[in-house]
Amino acid sequence: MSSKWEREIEELLRDKFEDKPHRTPGRDGRPPGRRPQRDWWRWLRNLSPERLMVYGLVVIVASWFLRFFAGGLSFWFGIVGVVLIMLSLLFSVLNRESPRVEKRWRGQVVRLPRRRSWLEYEWLRLRNTLNRWLGRR
How far separated are the first and last CA of the chain, in Å rounded? Predict the structure, then answer.
């Protein structure tokens, strides 16, 4: 029995440390098969409203410093910064109900109750107050 385990371990170690054919990187230093378009789309897909807002603020600050050197260009940078901030606010409002990360605790998915709207919350508060005043439980 132990010889079977030893053979299995030796085979795994041999496979792990065996010289594998090395693939040379492409002209731009990337591993073969990776294209810049995929990187661009991955970056765009992972763009969060918080990052977009930071980019907008950076562009606005850059436009403020740019006004000393190129006034007309500074104006357009400011406009782009404001548009980025407004887009981030819009994305944060539209994406409120769909979190990107699944909440987990000790490997199990945590299912939180859905949030109540302010109208539903006020109605429940009023109903509970009336029940308490009228003595109903």
Answer: 69
* Residue 19 falls in which region: left (phi positive, over 0), alpha (psi -120 to 50) or beta: beta
Q: Quick check: 59 pLDDT over 90?
A: yes
> Which tops the pLDDT comparison, 55 or 72?
55
Helices (H), the chain: 2-17, 36-45, 49-66, 71-94, 118-134
Three-state SS for 1? coil
Q: Which residues contact 56 (CB under 8 A, 6 or more apart)?
A: 81, 82, 83, 84, 85, 87, 88
- Let me know the angle formed at the C-alpha of 98 by 96 and 102, rounded to the nearest 5 degrees: 125
* CA distance to 9, 21, 24, 88, 133, per residue, from 18 (Å): 14, 10, 18, 50, 79
